[in-house]
Amino acid sequence: MWFLRRMLRIPWNAKKTNERVLNEANKRRSLVRTIRKRQATFLGHVMRRGKLEHLVTTGKFEGKRSRGRQREKIMDGLATWLGPGKESDILAAVKDRDLWRDMIANAYKQGT
């Protein structure tokens, strides 16, 4: 953002939001999309393998939960990113590698 503000000659104390600066530069934020894409590819790898990591990422691990607000699970974040559907639909799609790649590519293109 600092670099874009410098290129557009927007002073640091101007009351412009980051979204407005991005609109002026015709750019989109891509870091979050890249992180989600990498998480999805990693999840597909882990789920097809089916070992201990599979149990941890699906949340089927036994034990006490810690106090306070629960952390967001990878599955929850990807379920919102990939669009409407249940976790069971996502887990079924992971088994078919081509379908999984198509789902990730479509979500990445849509930019959600």
Report what the structure shows.
GO terms for molecular function: translation initiation factor activity. Keywords: Initiation factor, Protein biosynthesis. This is Eukaryotic translation initiation factor 3 subunit f. The protein has helices at 2-7, 18-25, 31-49, 52-58, 74-82, 87-95, 97-110. With 112 residues, it is an all-alpha fold. Helix 6 (87-95) crosses helix 7 (97-110).
Itemize the secondary structure elements and their pairings.
Layout: H1 2-7, H2 18-25, H3 31-49, H4 52-58, H5 74-82, H6 87-95, H7 97-110
Helix pairs in contact: 3-5, 3-7, 6-7
Beta-strand residue fraction: under 5%
Task: Please give the number of β-strands.
Answer: 0
Number of helices: 7
**Helix and strand succession?**
HHHHHHH
Shape, principal axes of CA atoms: elongated
- Going by helix content, strand content and strand pairing, the class is mainly alpha
Percentage of residues assigned to helices: 55-70%
Mean pLDDT: 81
Radius of gyration: 19 Å
Biggest pleated-sheet summary: none
**Stretches with pLDDT under 50, minimum 5 residues:** none
Cα distance spanning the termini: 20 Å
Short structural summary:
With 112 residues, the protein is mainly alpha-helical. 64% of the residues lie in helices and 0% in strands.
